[in-house]
Specification:
By secondary structure, the chain is mainly alpha-helical. It has a 3-stranded mixed β-sheet, with helices on both faces. The longest helix is centred in the last third of the chain and has 36 residues. The radius of gyration is 24 Å and the shape is globular. It starts with 15 loop residues before the first helix and ends with a helix.
Length: 585
């Protein structure tokens, strides 16, 4: 009952519908190839509509297959048949790369594209998708080269990514004479026992020695590939590519990072105080970053209690969100518990055709785990707001993708803190929130620095594991300052974080800081406007599929290109840090 139910996709790999879709994807690809080969040179509305219909059909079938296989793999990375079929479907998708490139160039050469769209009501819902396709086509290569890149990715970038996932999900960690998974050992960072936290941290670091060299080859190969492809496509850097595809300006990123750097000393102050309270004199050691504080440190919440906790936290915000949470638990959208072969961390995967989401977490019963559930359910709520959009429209950018998830965190934690009257319990809630915010500010900033450094150095050198460890240490020292004990950091964060291991998603770090602070800015608007804000919030989420980040923010009268906005969002965290300092004098 604590596992997700994938039967709405397929009942098993032997499901006739699965085999039918595998064959159907081939038929669609053939039809797609024939269609793109016979496109006219001038372009027409009728051809555009036929093109969109085939693309939608292809996308829906492919996503059913990929969702089922990737979700199955995420809970059992040792399943050889699933891994093999993932390769089969990836190959089928790569077979359409040349046709995809032809269609994109066809769209790009329609001189009066916007006028053509505006004059046909059937095309209007696809307007932003078509205009963005035309805009991004300037970075496309020849049809043949696009086909080669897509086909080679199966045995190159996808393989390197799968290697990191496989090694970290199956590695055994020796802990007090027992073999435990990496997810289990990392969950011990939240244990109430100082001895458990420290020994788990030491066991975790020792275990990485068995996989770090292989994972280093994975990281080098992926980052080297991205550098090469970016150069071929005409991007100045992987960061520029990420910003363009994220529909976010460099001006906005600079404003965000400048604000973060200015406020880092406040987070260092919080970390030093926490270290002092836990008996440390040289800053907080890494193994105590997530040490629980305040009353009821021993409390563990059952899965059923986590649902009640979330519903109580959101009841005053929005009934639609509460209804969706009920549905997610009752209809088995969530895979809760850690196990060997299951990937670490948490994620939410939404299927537009089913109009539902699938959520993976490694739930251990801590308050932080409940916040993680709230975060992932925020992603599901975001998907619910855009579910009536055309299927191929649903690609909102990374920074905005973290808006609803982090807003959920802010809502639930502020609600709990607001209604709490007992000092020790309030301290626990505040400190738990500061743990999470410190992650999206200090740790995310360290990840940004690390990835920037790796991309730059990878242009001219191969980075061995010990060099990657040193880059990570330096990034953590820059981000955490004197808040952490410099002799007790985590030099292997690059091994266990899957965010680094995607050729298509570079810099999957600053979007968390963006989402976290943007959500706090939105929450401040909610506090001013009350219930009337909820409708505006939902409209803002809907706009994320067709507007740039700056345009979306303006719907809430926010200018994210200005440092002042980000500072105002950080001020709400500073208030909480000051309260923590007062409570712990």
């Amino acid at each position: 009952m604590y596992q997700w139910n994938l039967s709405k996709l397929y009942t098993s790999l032997e499901d006739p519908a699965f085999t039918e879709d595998l064959n159907r994807l081939d038929e669609i690809n053939q039809r797609w190839a024939h269609f793109t080969a016979t496109l006219s040179s001038e372009g027409s509305a009728e051809e555009l509509k036929q093109m969109l219909a085939i693309q939608t059909e292809q996308y829906q079938v492919a996503m059913r297959l990929m969702d089922y296989l990737s979700l199955s793999s995420s809970v059992d990375s040792t399943n050889a048949k699933v891994q093999s079929l993932l390769g089969v479907v990836s190959k089928k998708l790569s077979d359409s790369a040349k046709s995809d490139a032809i269609s994109e160039k066809y769209i790009a050469r329609i001189a009066d594209l916007e006028a053509m769209i505006d004059s046909d009501h059937e095309l209007v819902p696809y307007k932003e998708y078509l205009l963005q396709t035309k805009k991004w086509n300037q970075y496309s290569l020849s049809d043949e080269v696009e086909e080669v890149i897509s086909k080679l990715s199966i045995d190159s970038t996808e393989a390197w990514s799968n290697l990191q996932s496989y090694l970290t999900s199956t590695m055994d960690v020796d802990y007090k004479g027992e073999k435990v998974t990496l997810s289990q050992i990392r969950n011990m960072a939240y244990d109430e026992s100082p001895e458990v936290r420290k020994s788990a941290y030491e066991a975790e670091l020792a275990a990485y020695s068995h996989v770090k060299d292989a994972v280093a080859f994975s990281l080098n190969s992926l980052k080297g590939h991205v550098n090469t492809i970016c150069e071929m496509r005409g991007f100045e850097s992987a960061l520029e590519r990420t910003l363009i595809y994220s529909r976010m300006s460099q001006e906005t990123l600079d404003a965000l990072l400048d604000a973060i750097k200015e406020y880092l000393p406040k987070f260092h102050m919080y970390l030093r105080r926490k270290g002092e309270l836990l008996g440390h004199e040289n800053g907080l050691p890494w193994y105590d970053l997530f040490a629980p504080m305040g009353k009821s440190n021993e409390r563990k919440y059952t899965v059923e209690e986590s649902k009640d906790y979330l519903l109580d936290g959101f009841k005053d915000f929005d009934g639609e969100l509460c209804d969706m949470i009920e549905k997610a638990y009752e209809e088995e959208w969530i895979d809760f518990l850690p196990k060997r072969g299951k990937v670490g961390g948490a994620f939410c995967a939404s299927n537009s055709e089913l109009k539902q989401s699938f959520i993976l977490t490694n739930y251990d019963g801590s308050l932080s785990d409940i916040v993680t559930l709230g975060h992932e359910l925020g992603h599901a709520f975001h998907s619910q707001q855009v579910q009536d959009e055309p299927t191929i429209n649903l690609g909102y950018s990374m920074p905005l993708a973290e808006t609803a998830s982090t807003f959920n965190e802010v809502v639930i934690m502020n609600q709990m803190i607001k209604t709490c009257e007992e000092k020790d319990v309030k301290l626990k809630l505040i400190e738990s929130t500061l743990q999470d915010v410190t992650q999206i500010i200090c740790d995310i900033y360290s990840r940004y620095l690390f990835e920037s450094n790796v991309f730059e150095q990878r242009k001219s050198a191969f980075l061995y594991a010990d060099e990657l460890e040193e880059i990570m240490r330096n990034a953590q020292l820059s981000a955490y300052g004197d808040g952490l004990d410099p002799n007790c950091l985590h030099p292997y964060m690059w091994v266990c974080k899957g965010h680094y291991y995607s050729a298509g998603l570079s810099y999957y770090n600053f979007p968390y800081a963006f989402g976290g602070l943007f959500a706090r800015g939105l929450y401040a608007v909610y506090q001013r406007e009350g219930a009337s804000f909820v409708a505006k919030y939902k409209e803002l989420l809907k706009a994320t599929v067709y507007k740039d980040a700056e345009e979306v923010a303006r719907l809430a009268d926010i200018d994210i290109t200005q440092k002042e906005f980000w500072c105002s969002a950080l001020d709400s965290v500073v208030t909480m840090i000051d309260e923590f300092m007062e409570l712990t004098k």
